[in-house]
Structures are given as C-alpha cells and as structure tokens.
Design a protein that fits this description.
The termini are far apart. By secondary structure, this protein is mainly α. It is built from five helices and no strands. Helix 4 crosses helix 5.
C-alpha cells in the first residue's frame, strides 16, 4: 500500500511553486505570449493525461495498489505530481537554453539530455521513496540491475517528457491552431 505521509507532498508543492514562478518569468520574457500560453497549457494538459495513463497502466506493479476508487484517485494525484515534475524539467531546460519555447524544436541532442535528466531524476526519486517506505514493488516490477529501482517509473520520465513536448509543439504549430477569419 502507498503510504501517505506529509513528506510525500513537500517536493511536489515546492516544485509547483518553482514551476509557477518560472512560468511567470518566461511569460514575461515571451515575445509571443499567446503562443507561449498555448504551448505550455497544452503541455500541462498532456503531462497530466499521459502520466495518468502511465500510472494506471503500471500501478499493479506496486504492492497494495489496484483499480479500486481510492487507488485510482491516488493515481490521479500522482499524475498531477508527475505533471508538475514534467513542468519543472521543462522550465529547468528553458533556463539552460534561455528560451521559454525551447522544446518547439527538439533535436536529437536535446532529447538525449532530456531523457538523461528525466531518468536520473526518476531514479533518485524512486530511491528516496523506496527508502522512506512510501511504496514497494511487486515481484512483477522489472528492476534495473545495480540500483534496485523499478524500470517502468524510470522509463516514464525518460520517455514521456519528450513525447509531451513534441505533441505540444505539434498541436500548437501555426497550421494546427485555428485562426479567425473575417468576411
């Protein structure tokens, strides 16, 4: 069973404050504020939806977690925390690249570093949560040799951020955004 401890919420709440602060910073810097708002809003929605689907798909790899209402609701909360972390990852790279829309043009190099950062962060998070007893794996969870953390949560943050940012770029590209026409 997943243990709900007060410490479990400290990191996501702190990360949310960071994401909101960085969002405000990059919005102020944006030359095209509507594009920035659309891109980040689409990214936030996709981050929640795709992480929720991922959480639902691998939840039975955790001890005591199933598809009953309390767990499905908890998984929604976990997906919200995951979406916040996807935002923090996004804005962390925005600081590095000094561009609030850096992910609209993902290169192989940027995807590599994004996957490396996401995988490292997920690994550290899993180690901390396992050590704190916040959750435990079932025997079906594939374990990464040498570090003892589950493969699926690490893959989640190696794969989903690049997918989310790519889809956000695609869904908010000029040809994908409806324009108003005047007669």
């Amino acid at each position: 069973m997943v243990a709900l401890t007060p410490g479990l919420f400290v990191v996501p709440v702190s990360a949310l404050a960071g994401v909101l602060g960085l969002y405000a910073y990059f919005l102020k810097q944006a030359t095209d504020k509507p594009v920035f708002r659309r891109f980040t809003g689409t990214g936030a929605a996709l981050a929640f939806l795709l992480n929720y689907a991922w959480e639902l798909s691998h939840c039975t790899l955790y001890q005591g977690v199933g598809y009953d209402l309390p767990h499905v609701a908890f998984l929604a909360l976990a997906a919200l925390a995951d979406a916040i972390m996807v935002g923090l990852l996004y804005f962390g790279f925005a600081l590095v690249y000094r561009n609030g829309l850096w992910a609209r043009h993902l290169s192989a190099e940027r995807i590599f570093w994004l996957m490396a950062a996401g995988g490292t962060g997920a690994t550290l998070s899993e180690v901390a949560h396992l050590a704190a007893g916040n959750w435990a794996y079932t025997a079906q969870m594939p374990i990464i040799p040498g570090i003892g953390v589950g493969l699926t949560p690490v893959l989640q943050f190696m794969v989903l951020p690049a997918v989310i940012y790519s889809l956000s770029a695609r869904f908010t590209a000029p040809s994908a955004v409806p324009t108003s026409r005047t007669s």
